[in-house]
Design brief:
The protein is mainly α. It has twelve helices and no strands. Helices cover about 60% and strands about 0% of the residues.
Length: about 280
């Protein structure tokens, strides 16, 4: 059975990869037909390079974060049927809530931004941008935000699965070819909302942090509609795009550590590492 389950898991991953590449190709074709400049092949190739590196490091990362999750789950506060509908609903809402704060912190703490900036470094907003994810999430401490779920009693594999669903959903909102979705815009994080999140226009900075939902942005004052009469611009503020996957993945770490080394005094060094980006 474990071997059969492994084969099924491999088949699912291959199917998802084939579907993702097919959708990317379709998006590229639509862009060409409509003469919409949605892709730069060099940037898309760099995104695939970053994604390959992230995939190779995923096993190491999983081994690192498994230890604290297992510890917290071993000391869990509650035992309950995790497959029940109320438990699944609680896990969904709880993971969305914690994802919102983890994502928001990733924009406001430079140590975390060093990882997350990789995702925002594309100057085109398309499906290939969705797979450009940082290599150093565990070093940045992203997993720490989700440990309370294990302490409450959710099994680590359930948490990982729910976060995986979140990530899978977000693949589809990295596109300029989906229009507004009517009443769903009030609840869901849609391509319209996520375009704002990725834009570097001043009115769009640090907005729309939700994963699958947009409700926490509305509740906590970080929601924004696209600015009127402005074309959205993408990429890092003041940054120069690179087509080198290694430089893309590690460039902000190098810049941050260089700035910290040059800073005068312990306080200045700590602000460089853990203060807001660009401060």
């Amino acid at each position: 059975m474990p071997y059969a389950a492994q084969l099924v898991g491999t088949d699912i991953r291959v199917l998802i990869l084939a579907m993702a590449i097919g959708l990317m190709a379709l998006e590229y074709g639509i862009g060409r037909l409509t003469r919409h400049d949605a892709h730069d092949w060099r940037e898309s190739a760099a995104s695939f390079g970053v994604a390959l590196g992230q995939t190779l490091l995923r096993g190491v990362e999983a081994g690192i974060v498994a230890i604290p999750f297992a510890y917290f789950y071993r000391h869990r506060l509650f035992d309950f049927d995790q497959t029940s509908l109320p438990a699944l609903a609680a896990l969904f809402v709880g993971s969305e809530f914690l994802y919102y704060w983890q994502h928001r912190a990733s924009h406001r703490i430079r140590w975390m931004w060093a990882t997350h900036s990789v995702h925002h470094s594309t100057t085109r907003f398309n499906l290939t941008a969705a797979i450009r994810l940082g290599w150093t999430g565990s070093i940045s401490g992203n997993f720490l935000f989700f440990l309370p779920l294990a302490l409450l009693g959710f099994h680590p594999l359930m948490i990982v699965a729910m976060l995986g669903i979140n990530l899978f959903y977000q693949f589809f909102i990295h596109t300029e070819f989906v229009p507004r979705l009517g009443p769903l815009e009030w609840v869901l994080n849609t391509p319209n909302h996520h375009r704002v999140h990725h834009a570097s226009n001043e009115a769009c900075l640090d907005r729309n942090f939700g994963g699958m939902l947009i409700v926490f942005d509305r509740l906590f004052g970080t929601f924004a509609e696209p600015p009127a009469h402005q074309k959205l611009r993408y990429g890092l503020v003041g940054g120069q795009p690179s087509f080198n996957p290694v430089k893309t993945a590690l460039g902000e770490w190098a810049a941050m550590l260089r700035d910290a080394r040059r800073a005068q005094g312990a306080g200045a060094k700590l602000r460089t590492l853990f203060g807001p980006p660009g401060a």
